[in-house]
Structure formats: structure tokens, C-alpha cells
């Protein structure tokens, strides 16, 4: 297989400086007898050992594997079989299984149907909105569906608008997802009928924007996108004088769709914007579609009902198809979208067993991994995204997957979905767009990132100084430092500079003192609106 070029230009050097150290003499921890007498591989081993000796990993756990992508030959490993939390590296297994089982051309379909009878502009019976899991549905897509219904001549529906979300089960949240993440958009509920507020496609969320009033004492002005009556905004915040601290916060109340805006926002301050998950996204989708029907002159007499299946003999009145999976992989993987991962797991479950559940989907993911040579007896996967802290995967198994998928007919599309180091465009660089700039890895390394409190991971590919493509999986757990991302980066940059003529060891720069807990605990794409 030929080596793939990223085609990405390198950005300028960042404000901090990489420290380069050559000719290290450390204890060799080499597992491959074939490479033990190779000076180049000895240098590489010493270099990575030096990086992993960082004091922030004292008392922590590291599982690391590096090797040749073309042959699968391991060049370096440390505790390769230690089961650690992979965080969003879990999306590697989910996305690979989805491409194989659902196929690159898989599209989610959202339909409007009816089994009623027509009499002129009157539809006698119910109108059904049936979803299959499309996480990219926008308000304008529901508007187009409503426009199609109106164009068919229907103006009055005697029955109800029924939201058919029976493609999946009614379990909305994954195993052991944190309760305090409930209103966070990266922990949004999973339903086959949902709405995204923008083209980041954070399904099941609304975008809430608050700006200060004109003078101290005024309430902040708040807007919700898309506009809807499904959520209620309770504005408790206050505009304060310019220069005062900005403490405005936006959160949804537990188990309800009341979004509370509280705290202070100074006169002239920038807007505060939050993406907030809704409670029960099926009802949210039905509400947005119901409003669209009304806007197009279609009145539904009986209101909205959810959770009822569409009759088998219903006729399709309008339909919308998502982008193909090969294109959906870009926002999914580049921005580490948790909702997309979980939708794919349930879609896989429905495809393979007729059951849109986590258990059915994950069983099919496991079957696929076994076919790829991954030892599933050494790992545990309980969700599709890696948000659960119950996931446990050794770096060796992630590395095996990275090698195995290279022969898949869909590999090029999957490979293109991985974030690219220091690529400025969010839909190219994704969660790596600000990392490894000004180094041989910039525009070269592709990888899936992963972040949870005390867990960090980076697995992917990089081309070394001799033009050889390498794979790597670095999984770090139980660290107390706010961030260990630069340790991962140092390993990858060292790989990018490695060659037969020498190896430059890039030492980590140390954790940024300004790194906030939120930055340390979440993917950079999850810390909106600033993001990566």
C-alpha cells in the first residue's frame, strides 16, 4: 500500500519551543529481538523512554505501541497489554465497524408518512414523522419536509403528528455517563429523531446565546437556535457595569427543558454562547417539525404523540436522506462527536439484529474487531464514543486495528477523517489543529485524540524522516497533571524526526499553567465556542 500524503501545509511555529535531545543513553526496554541490535531502533527506544520518564507520569499508567504500518512490525512497546481508559480513541473501533457493517454509502433516512385517507386538502388520519438516527438533521431540513407535505396539497390533518422513534430503544444515555454532564452537549441524549442547531451537527442540542443589556440592571438578551417552544429559557442573570467580572452561566435543569441563564454579564461584554442538550430529543424534533408545518400552512388538529410505530401500509409523503457515512465521518471524527458514535452503534445493532440497542450494536462491533485480528477478550467497550469510564482497551489492540484496517476498501475515507496535526481548517485539523505546529509532525501526523479527567490518548499514523509510515497508540491514565497532551505530541514528533541517520528526541514542554480543568477533562472540540 502506498504511503498517503496529507497535502497540508505546515503552520508557523507556536509560541512555545520544543527541546531536542540526541544521543540518549537510557535503559533499553525492547520487546522485539529482531530489532535489539539495530542502532536506529535502539535510538528510537531510548528516545521514547526518555519522553515517558516525564515526572507527570510518576504513579500514572502508560500503554504505548509503535510500529511499521506496512508490515505491522512493532518497533517499541511499553505495557502494551495494560487495559486503560481510551477516552475518545474508542471512536476508532466504532467508526471502523460502522464503515464495514453499514458501508461508506449508508445514509440515514427521515420520512413523513400517513395511512389516512385524502379528501381534497384534508388528510383524515395521523401524520407520522419517522427517523432512523440521522444526527445531521437541521431545522431547515424539517422545514423542507414540511414544504413537501404542503406541496402535496395537504392543509389540514384531522389526527395527530406521531413521532416514530422506535428504530432505537428508549435508553437515551450511555452506561456510567457522568450525571453532572447531563446538560452538556457532548453528553446529549440518543434518539433516531433529533435536531442539530448548526453544521457541527451536535444532535439533540440547542445553541443558547446571551448578550448584555444596554445598562446595568437590565436582563441579558437571550436567543435560542433553532427557535422552538420545546425548551423554556429562565433568565435570572443581570447586566452589570463594564469591567465587572463576567460570571454568566447557561445550564439546563435536571430532567426538564428549562434552561437557566444566571450570573452577571458586564455591559459591552462578548456574548456568552452555550450548546445545551435537550431532554427527550424526539419531542424536540417533533416540535421543530410541527412549527415548520404551521409555517407552511398545514394544521394538525390532534397535537403531538411520541413513541408509536408507523403502520406498515403507510404512504411516504416526504423524505430526507443524510450525507453518506463516508462524509459524516468528517464532522464525527474531526470534532470527536459523541452523539454520532452512539447513533452509529445503535444503527449497527438494528442493521445486524433488528434491534437498535447499545448491546446489539456493541456485539456487532466486537464481532468485526475479532475479524480484524483484535483480541476482544483483552478489552471492554460499553459505548461508542468513549465517554464512559468503564471502557478499557490496551494500546496493543488499538495498534492492531490501525494496521488491520489498511487493507479495507474504505480505508482511504476513514484515514481522511482522522484529525491532522496543525491543519488550520477545523474540518481538517479537528482536535489536532493547534498541536505539533512547527515540527516535522505538522501536516504529517493523523490521529484520533482522547480526553477525560485523568485519561488521555492519541492513536494514528505518522511518516518518519525516511518516508516510512508508522502507526502509534499512546494511552495515558491516572495522571494528576492538568494535561499530558504534550507528552503524546513529543512521542509523535520524535517518530516524525526518526530515521536511519539519527533520531531527534523531542521532550515535552510541560503542562500549561493556564490549562483549566475543563480543557484538561474534555476534547478541545467539546469546549465551545472557542474549541480547538
Automatic annotation (TrEMBL):
Keywords: Carboxypeptidase, Hydrolase, Protease, Signal
Signal peptide residues on this chain, from the entry's feature table: 1-36
InterPro entries: Beta-lactam/transpept-like (IPR012338), Peptidase_S13 (IPR000667)
Gene Ontology MF, one: carboxypeptidase activity
One Pfam family from the record: Peptidase_S13
Transferase recorded as keyword: no
Family: Belongs to the peptidase S13 family.
Protein name as annotated: D-alanyl-D-alanine carboxypeptidase/D-alanyl-D-alanine-endopeptidase
Lineage: Bacteria, Bacillati, Actinomycetota, Actinomycetes, Kitasatosporales
Gene, per the UniProt record: dacB_2
Amino acid at each position: 500500500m502506498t504511503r498517503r500524503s496529507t497535502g497540508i501545509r505546515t503552520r508557523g511555529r507556536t509560541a512555545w519551543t520544543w527541546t531536542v535531545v540526541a544521543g540518549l543513553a537510557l535503559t533499553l526496554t525492547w520487546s522485539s529481538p529482531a530489532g535489539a541490535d539495530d542502532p536506529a531502533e535502539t535510538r528510537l527506544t531510548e528516545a521514547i523512554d526518555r519522553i515517558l520518564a516525564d515526572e507527570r507520569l510518576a504513579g500514572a499508567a502508560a500503554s504505548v505501541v509503535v510500529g511499521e504500518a506496512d508490515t505491522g512490525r512493532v518497533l517499541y512497546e511499553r505495557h502494551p497489554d495494560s487495559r486503560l481508559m481510551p477516552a475518545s480513541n474508542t471512536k476508532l473501533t466504532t467508526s471502523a465497524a460502522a464503515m464495514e457493517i453499514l458501508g461508506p454509502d449508508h445514509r440515514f433516512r427521515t420520512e413523513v408518512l400517513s395511512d389516512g385517507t385524502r379528501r381534497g386538502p384534508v388528510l383524515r388520519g395521523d401524520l407520522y414523522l419517522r427517523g432512523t438516527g440521522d444526527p445531521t438533521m437541521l431545522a431547515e431540513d424539517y422545514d423542507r419536509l414540511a414544504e413537501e407535505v404542503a406541496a402535496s396539497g395537504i392543509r389540514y390533518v384531522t389526527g395527530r403528528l406521531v413521532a416514530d422513534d422506535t428504530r432505537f430503544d428508549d435508553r437515551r444515555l450511555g452506561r456510567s455517563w457522568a450525571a453532572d454532564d447531563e446538560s452538556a452537549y457532548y453528553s446529549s441524549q440518543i434518539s433516531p429523531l433529533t435536531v442539530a442547531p448548526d453544521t457541527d451537527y451536535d444532535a439533540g442540542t440547542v445553541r443558547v446565546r446571551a448578550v448584555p443589556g444596554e445598562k446595568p440592571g437590565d436582563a441579558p438578551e437571550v436567543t435560542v437556535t433553532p427557535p422552538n417552544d420545546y425548551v423554556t429559557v429562565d433568565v435570572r442573570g443581570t447586566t452589570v457595569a463594564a469591567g465587572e467580572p463576567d460570571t454568566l452561566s447557561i445550564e439546563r435543569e435536571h430532567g426538564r427543558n428549562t434552561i437557566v441563564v444566571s450570573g452577571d454579564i458586564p455591559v459591552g461584554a462578548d456574548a456568552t454562547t452555550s450548546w445545551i442538550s435537550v431532554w427527550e430529543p424526539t419531542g424536540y424534533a417533533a416540535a421543530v417539525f410541527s412549527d415548520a408545518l404551521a409555517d407552511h400552512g398545514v394544521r394538525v388538529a390532534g397535537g403531538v404523540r411520541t413513541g408509536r410505530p408507523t403502520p406498515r401500509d403507510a404512504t411516504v409523503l416526504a423524505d430526507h436522506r443524510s450525507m453518506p457515512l463516508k462524509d459524516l465521518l468528517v464532522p464525527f471524527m474531526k470534532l470527536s462527536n459523541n452523539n454520532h458514535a452512539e447513533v452509529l452503534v445503535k444503527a449497527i445493532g438494528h442493521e445486524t439484529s433488528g434491534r437498535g440497542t447499545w448491546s446489539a450494536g456493541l456485539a456487532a462491533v466486537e464481532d468485526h474487531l475479532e475479524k480484524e485480528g483484535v483480541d476482544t477478550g483483552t478489552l471492554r467497550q460499553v459505548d461508542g464514543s468513549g465517554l464512559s469510564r468503564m471502557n478499557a482497551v490496551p494500546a496493543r489492540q488499538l495498534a492492531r486495528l490501525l494496521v488491520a484496517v489498511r487493507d479495507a476498501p474504505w480505508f482511504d475515507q476513514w484515514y481522511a477523517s482522522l484529525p491532522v496535526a496543525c491543519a488550520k481548517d477545523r474540518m481538517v485539523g479537528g482536535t489536532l489543529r493547534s498541536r505539533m505546529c512547527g515540527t516535522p509532525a505538522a501536516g504529517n501526523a493523523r490521529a484520533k485524540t482522547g480526553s477525560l479527567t485523568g485519561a488521555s490518548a492519541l492513536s494514528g499514523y505518522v511518516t518518519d524522516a525516511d518516508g516510512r509510515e508508522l502507526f502509534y497508540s499512546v494511552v495515558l491514565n491516572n495522571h494528576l497533571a492538568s494535561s499530558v497532551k504534550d507528552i503524546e505530541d513529543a512521542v509523535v514528533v520524535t517518530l516524525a524526526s526518526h530515521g536511519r541517520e539519527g533520531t531527534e528526541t523531542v521532550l515535552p514542554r510541560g503542562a500549561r499553567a493556564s490549562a483549566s480543568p475543563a480543557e484538561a477533562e474534555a476534547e478541545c472540540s467539546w469546549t465551545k465556542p472557542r474549541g480547538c
